[in-house]
Automatic annotation (TrEMBL):
<dbReference type="InterPro" id="IPR001584">
    <property type="entry name" value="Integrase_cat-core"/>
</dbReference>
<feature type="domain" description="Integrase catalytic">
    <location>
        <begin position="130"/>
        <end position="310"/>
    </location>
</feature>
<dbReference type="GO" id="GO:0003676">
    <property type="term" value="F:nucleic acid binding"/>
</dbReference>
<protein>
    <submittedName>
        <fullName>IS21 family transposase</fullName>
    </submittedName>
</protein>
<dbReference type="InterPro" id="IPR054353">
    <property type="entry name" value="IstA-like_C"/>
</dbReference>
<comment type="similarity">
    <text>Belongs to the transposase IS21/IS408/IS1162 family.</text>
</comment>
<dbReference type="Pfam" id="PF22483">
    <property type="entry name" value="Mu-transpos_C_2"/>
</dbReference>
<dbReference type="GO" id="GO:0015074">
    <property type="term" value="P:DNA integration"/>
</dbReference>
<dbReference type="InterPro" id="IPR012337">
    <property type="entry name" value="RNaseH-like_sf"/>
</dbReference>
<dbReference type="InterPro" id="IPR036397">
    <property type="entry name" value="RNaseH_sf"/>
</dbReference>
Length: 515
């Protein structure tokens, strides 16, 4: 017996045909025939239901007919002929029957002929049937047809775009109208659909729209960041349909046409001035369709969903997802970014860097390589407003911004009461701008002198002068520091000859102290 499955399993793992022949005990010609037929039919991977019997029927259907003594139909030719206008399967069977009898072979009866063709069409020409699990997939798209509402401002019409989401398993659907197809409405449609269904599916299959997919790469499409956030929040995954592959979303494509006929066409003459009113009409029609009985099986969409699918959905989050929008910007030399003509600061280290911005209704967050570096409350109203955090400034900018009379008094208080009094005199005696410049110079001294020495110098200055100045203060501070150094190295004691009379030059100065 030919081991079709093992042969293809080895071939799909890049094992040579010579090695496969040795492994399964079949000739190299047999291996080659199987591989060529699989490649011709587009078989690239195996599923669980593809056993040896299934693969034999799939790869070599003519063998089944020959083994049973019947004349094998050319299904490829029959399929092509059936696509022609006015050609029916009954007509093709009559031609096949005549051909078989002319050759002295036994033809299939029409019923068997039709059944075998159905199997061929499913395996060869139609999309490979995929049995969806309940709650596994939700397919989403915008309907091609639109509705409209009356515009009160000019008497014209506003276009309404129709959002459609459907479960392939039960065909249970959600429909809503929006005034545009932008990202915010795309995400809102998903949120409302989840709430309508009362749960979240395992995965979402959208079309390759810019509202959902930033770049439709064949292997791995790049998702819109806001759309990815929504999926992460509701703990589902997004699997975009392949480009120009409508069969990837066959259920929603079919539902879109059904919705277009049953809802959009039915409401094409409905006159209203409010989108909310139109959506109430859409919802009413939608509920009727979901409860309408199936034609080819018992029950309805709603019944199938409630009884067989709803229990498989993931529960909704208690808090609704907050809509957001992502943008990119470059940090300006003034360490701000511009969003909608408003300006928001970021740490100055990121000047000239490209950053990503997440915008929600009340908040703006700035990210650099997936790390959040800043956040601000969103600004509204008059354009040109700034939101600047002092932590984002360089040290010299922050010092300048914080250099105020009140801030200077607070700084003086940390040094001592004498410095506090000195600063108060400077602010009182001169103009504010001049005083702040003097205080800037004064505060820079803290880098080289201790707080105690600075407050002591202020005390000495206040005792010695009724009109203290910063220049005199610096002189006293320098003299005090020099005395302190002299005292530490012992030179001060050598200069003292009589404590009752202060400092004198002494004998050493005049050379009168012979050794």
């Amino acid at each position: 017996m030919i081991q079709y499955r093992k042969i293809l399993e080895l071939y799909f793992t890049d094992v040579s045909q010579r090695t496969i022949s040795t492994s399964v005990g079949s000739s190299r010609n047999t291996i080659s025939d199987i591989v060529k037929r699989a490649e011709k039919l587009g078989l690239e991977r195996l599923t669980d239901n593809m056993n040896n019997h299934w693969l034999e029927e799939f790869l070599f259907p003519e063998k089944q007919a020959i083994e049973k003594g019947f004349f094998p139909p050319d299904w490829e030719k029959i399929h092509k002929e059936l696509q022609k206008k006015n050609v029916t399967l009954k007509l093709l069977h009559m031609e096949y029957d005549q051909q078989a009898r002319d050759g002295g072979k036994i033809p299939y009866a029409y019923r068997t002929f039709a059944e075998n063709y159905g199997k061929y069409a499913k395996k060869y020409k139609a999309t490979m049937p995929i049995r969806r699990k309940p709650g596994e997939i939700l397919e989403i798209d915008w309907a091609g047809s639109t509705l409209s509402i009356n515009d009160r401002s000019n008497g014209g019409n506003l276009t309404v775009y129709v959002f459609v989401a459907t479960f392939p398993y039960s065909q249970y659907s959600y429909v809503e109208g929006f005034l545009d197809m932008k990202s915010a409405n795309w995400l809102t449609g998903h949120i409302h659909a989840f709430e309508y269904f009362g749960g979240v599916p395992d995965s979402l299959v959208p079309d390759n729209l810019k509202t959902g997919v930033s770049k439709a790469l064949r292997g791995e499409p790049i998702l819109n960041e806001a759309y990815r956030e929504l999926a992460d929040y509701y703990q589902t995954v997004i699997v975009p349909g392949r480009v120009r592959s409508p069969k990837d979303k066959a259920s929603v494509e079919g539902t879109v046409g059904f919705i277009s006929r049953q809802i959009i066409a039915a409401l094409r003459h409905y006159q209203c001035f409010d989108l909310r009113d139109l959506n109430q009409q859409i919802l009413s029609k939608l509920n009727e369709l979901n409860q309408e009985a199936f034609q080819k099986r018992p029950g309805s969409r709603k019944k199938a969903f409630d009884e067989e699918e709803k229990s498989y959905l993931h529960p909704l989050r208690q808090t609704r997802f907050k809509l957001s929008e992502w943008r990119s910007a470059k940090v300006q030399p003034n360490y701000h970014i511009q969003i909608e003509r408003m300006y928001y600061s970021v740490p100055y280290e990121y000047i000239q860097s490209d950053v990503d911005i997440r915008l929600s209704k009340d908040l703006i967050e700035v990210y650099f390589k997936d790390t959040r570096i800043a956040s601000h409350m969103r600004l509204y109203g008059e354009i040109g407003q700034f939101s600047t955090l002092t932590d984002h400034m360089p040290d010299n900018h922050r010092l300048y911004l914080e250099h105020t009379p009140a801030n200077s008094r607070e700084w003086a208080k940390t040094l001592g009461s004498n410095m506090e009094e000195f600063v108060a005199i400077l602010l009182k005696n001169g103009s504010e701008k001049k005083a702040l410049n003097q205080l800037m110079s004064l505060r820079s001294l803290e880098k080289r002198h201790s707080k105690e020495n600075m407050d002591l110098a202020a005390q000495n200055l206040l005792i010695a002068s009724s009109n203290p100045t910063v220049s005199v203060y610096k002189t006293i501070l320098a003299r005090n520091k020099k005395r302190e150094h002299a005292k530490d190295d012992g030179s001060l004691s050598k200069m003292v000859t009589n404590e009752n009379f202060g400092f004198v030059r002494g004998a050493n100065y005049f050379g009168g102290n012979p050794k």
